[in-house]
Amino acid sequence: MPHLDHTAFVNACRDERGVGHHTLRAYAQDLRTFARFTKERHLTDPLSKDDILAYHRHLRDDLEAKPATIERRLVTLKSYFAWCADRNSALPSPFVDVRISVRIPRRLPRPIERDTLKAVLHAETELTRAQPSDQAFAADQKVTILMIKLLIVTGLRISELTNLKIRDVSTDAAQMIVRGKGNRERIVFVPNAELQDAFRRYCMFCAEHGSLKSPLFLNALGRRLRSQTFRKRLRMLSHRLGIVPHLTPHRFRHSAATLLIEEGSDIRIVQALLGHASLRTTEIYVRVSNTALRRALERANVLNALVE
């Protein structure tokens, strides 16, 4: 069985390339899957091109993995063997001369309908009328609504929002420093004056009860609010409002991009907001925004222009 140095590779990706926590966890999972395959097939070093092709068939036919999962597992493995070859040139990568094409269906993003967004935002009024016994729950939900508003206007990934520290937000709460994929920093603005005011008051409250290095959003135990906990809050809110399918953080990100496109924002502005490295990633929102297309056609009103 080949010796796979999972831990050293993952640590190198973290320390040398600044790879994020979720990606590192995916790398480790991908390498464990390959390790099980090599153990089952009694493979030994050096691995060959045929071993890699057999692994691809195993993922596709035996595990029936989705195309995106197959591609990720192969990319991780190729990166791992390239890293090994850099450390020891006597052990060439088995991916040399391997050409595997994985067709990934292009899935359209699913933004949240405007009426649903309005219903979620109106839930804040209901929370102000909470009974004394529900005050703790209402307080958590008010923070949840604040976070939802920030997701809608900024398009942040939920991990980017939950990883914010008090010091990352400007004193007027009009902008914040966000660390995205690959630990890349970008400045994100909060454009709505009313939201700025609510966000500023929240940040001031947090600063009074913690240091500038403290996490901005906390759970019931006073620790950093985890992304998964926020997802649970969204499911509870969805259930209370009768929203099906339930709300997810990434759908708010899709909504932020789609709303901007529909309101006529330049695609490069949306790219900068979302922190996309490639414009191709952002272009999908142009295709999905049929509302913007309909509005443009209505404004043009071609038939009326011909008969006038």
- Give the overall average pLDDT: 85
Q: Please count the beta strands (DSSP E, at least 2 residues each).
A: 2
**H/E order of the elements?**
HHHHHHHEEHHHHHHH
Strand content: under 5%
Radius of gyration: 24 Å
Low-pLDDT residue spans: none
Side by side, the strands of the main sheet go 1-2
CATH architecture of the largest domain: Orthogonal Bundle
Total of domains: 2
Number of helices: 14
CATH topology of the largest domain: hpI Integrase, Chain A
Q: Structural class, judged by helices and strands?
A: mainly alpha
User: Can you say what the CATH homologous superfamily of the largest domain is?
Assistant: Intergrase catalytic core
Q: Which CATH class of the largest domain applies here?
A: Mainly Alpha
In brief:
With 308 residues, the chain is mainly alpha-helical. The chain has helices at 6-17, 21-40, 49-62, 67-87, 114-127, 135-154, 158-162, 193-208, 227-241, 249-262, 267-274, 279-288, 290-300, 302-307; strands spanning 175-179, 185-189. The protein is 60% helix and 3% strand.
Please describe what this structure looks like.
The protein has 308 residues and is mainly alpha-helical. It has two domains: 6-87, DNA polymerase, domain 1 (Orthogonal Bundle), CATH 1.10.150; 114-296, hpI Integrase, Chain A, CATH 1.10.443. 60% of the residues lie in helices and 3% in strands. It contains 14 helices and two strands; from the N terminus they run H-H-H-H-H-H-H-E-E-H-H-H-H-H-H-H. The protein has a two-stranded antiparallel ribbon. Helix 10 packs antiparallel against helix 11 (267-274). The N and C termini lie far apart (79 Å).
